[in-house]
C-alpha cells in the first residue's frame, strides 16, 4: 500500500509537469503542479467518506431502520444493510481490479513533453534514492521545512482528537456524527477547486499561512459550541433541537473548510518544490512528516488529557476538553509568531534550490563529505532562512 502511494504521487507529478504552449506564464511554463494537491485532496476525501462515514451508516441497524428501510417498506432488523467483513472484501476486490487494469491497459509515452524529456530522465537505484534524500538535508531550507511540518499541528490537537468524543459524551450518537460528516466531505471536495488560483500560483503556501490563525479561532468557536451543547437538550430526553444540528454542521463546516485549505495549500507547495527525479519519494517524505505531526500531537494530547482528568483541582471549574483546547490554542499562537517569517521566506527560495544537482549520481562518499554546498548546514531552528 505504501509503495503504491509513492507511485501515485510520482505519477501525478509526471502527468501534471508539462509545458502548455498556448498558456505560458511569465516563466515560460503554465504551472499545473498545483492541481496535484487538488487531485490528492478530492481523492482522499472521497475515499474517507466511502470507507468510514458510509460504512458507519450502512452498518448501523439504528440508522438503517430509521432512514433507509422505511423508504423501501422493509421491516426493522437487528443488523445493518452491510457487514464490515463483506465491505472489506468488496473494496479489496475493487482495489485489485483497478490496480491490475492500470498496470495492463494504461500506456504512457516513452518521453515527456516537459524540460526533463529534452535532457533525459535519470534513473536512480534504491540505494541512490536514499542517498539523494540524505543529500537534501544538506540544505538549511529542508531543516526549516521539517521543523515546521513536525510542529504545526500542536495548535489543533485538542480539537481534532477530542471534539467527537465530547459530542458522544453529550449524547450525540455515532450515527448522527456520521451524518454530519456528509456535508464536511462536500466541503473537502469543493474547497480544493475554489482555491486553485492560490495553489497554482508561485506562492501556494500563503493559503496555509493565512488560514492558520482563523483555524485557531474556529477551534475556540467549536469549544464554545461544545460547552453550550447541554443547553440544546429537549427537556427530559437525550434528543436535541433541530436547530442545534444546523449550528453544529455550520461550525464544523467552517472549521473543515480552513483545514482543507491548509491541507491543499501544503500539498501544492510540496508538489511545486519536489524534484521530479525522486518526486514520489520527495512527496512521501514531506507527507510523512506532516502526518507524523498530526498523529503524534493527537496522541500526546489524549495522554495529557487523561492525566489531567485525574487532577480534581484542575478540572473543578473547567473540564479537560476546555483546558486542552485553550492550551493548544495558546501554543498555536506562539508557534505562528515564531515561524511566520520562516514560512514566508521558504516561498522566496528558488525552485532549483529545493532540487538535487542535475545529472549527478550519488555514492557513500557523498554522505561522508562534509563540504558545504548551497549554503551552510544549520541546526534545527526557526531563525530567518538564508538558503
TrEMBL record:
One family name in Pfam for this protein: Acatn
Gene Ontology CC terms, in alphabetical order: membrane
A GO molecular function held by the record: acetyl-CoA transmembrane transporter activity
Topology versus the membrane: Multi-pass membrane protein
Cellular location(s): Membrane
Domain of life the protein comes from: Eukaryota
The entry's keywords: Membrane, Transmembrane, Transmembrane helix
Transmembrane residue ranges: 88-106, 145-165, 177-195, 207-230, 242-264, 285-308, 320-340
Record's signal peptide: none
Keyword Transmembrane helix annotated: yes
Name listed for the protein in its UniProt record: Acetyl-coenzyme A transporter 1
Amino acid at each position: 500500500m505504501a509503495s503504491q502511494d509513492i507511485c501515485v504521487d510520482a505519477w501525478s507529478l509526471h502527468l501534471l509537469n508539462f509545458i502548455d504552449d498556448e498558456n505560458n506564464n511569465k516563466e515560460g511554463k503554465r504551472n499545473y503542479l498545483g492541481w496535484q494537491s487538488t487531485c490528492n485532496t478530492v481523492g482522499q476525501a472521497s475515499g474517507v467518506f466511502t470507507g468510514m462515514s458510509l460504512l458507519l451508516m450502512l452498518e448501523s441497524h439504528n440508522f438503517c431502520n430509521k432512514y433507509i428501510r422505511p423508504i423501501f417498506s422493509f421491516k426493522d432488523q437487528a443488523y445493518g444493510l452491510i457487514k464490515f467483513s463483506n465491505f472489506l472484501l468488496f473494496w479489496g476486490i475493487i482495489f485489485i481490479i483497478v490496480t491490475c487494469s492500470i498496470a495492463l491497459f494504461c500506456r504512457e509515452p516513452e518521453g515527456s513533453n516537459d524540460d526533463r524529456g529534452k535532457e533525459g530522465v535519470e534513473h536512480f537505484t534504491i540505494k541512490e534514492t536514499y542517498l539523494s534524500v540524505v543529500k537534501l538535508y544538506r540544505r538549511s531550507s529542508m531543516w526549516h521545512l521539517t521543523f515546521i511540518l513536525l510542529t504545526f499541528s500542536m495548535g489543533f490537537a485538542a480539537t481534532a482528537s477530542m471534539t467527537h468524543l465530547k459530542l458522544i459524551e453529550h449524547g450525540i450518537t455515532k450515527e448522527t456524527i456520521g451524518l454530519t460528516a456528509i456535508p464536511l466531505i462536500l466541503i473537502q471536495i469543493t474547497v480544493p477547486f475554489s482555491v486553485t488560483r492560490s495553489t497554482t500560483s508561485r506562492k501556494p503556501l500563503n493559503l496555509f499561512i493565512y488560514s492558520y490563525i482563523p483555524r485557531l479561532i474556529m477551534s475556540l468557536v467549536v469549544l464554545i459550541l461544545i460547552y453550550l451543547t447541554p443547553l440544546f437538550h429537549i427537556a427530559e430526553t437525550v434528543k436535541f433541537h433541530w436547530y442545534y444540528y444546523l449550528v453544529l454542521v455550520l461550525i464544523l463546516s467552517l472549521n473543515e473548510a480552513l483545514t482543507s485549505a491548509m491541507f491543499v495549500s501544503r500539498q501544492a507547495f510540496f508538489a511545486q518544490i519536489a524534484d521530479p527525479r525522486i518526486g514520489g519519494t520527495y512527496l512521501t517524505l514531506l507527507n510523512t512528516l506532516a502526518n507524523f505531526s498530526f498523529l503524534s500531537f493527537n496522541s500526546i494530547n489524549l495522554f495529557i488529557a487523561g492525566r489531567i482528568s485525574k487532577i480534581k483541582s484542575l478540572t473543578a471549574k473547567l473540564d479537560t476538553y476546555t483546558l486542552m483546547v485553550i492550551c493548544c490554542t495558546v501554543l498555536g499562537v506562539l508557534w505562528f509568531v515564531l515561524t511566520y517569517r520562516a514560512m514566508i521566506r521558504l516561498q522566496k527560495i528558488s525552485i532549483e534550490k529545493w532540487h538535487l544537482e542535475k545529472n549527478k549520481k550519488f555514492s557513500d562518499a557523498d554522505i561522508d563529505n562534509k563540504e558545504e554546498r548551497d549554503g551552510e548546514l544549520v541546526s534545527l531552528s526557526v531563525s530567518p532562512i538564508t538558503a
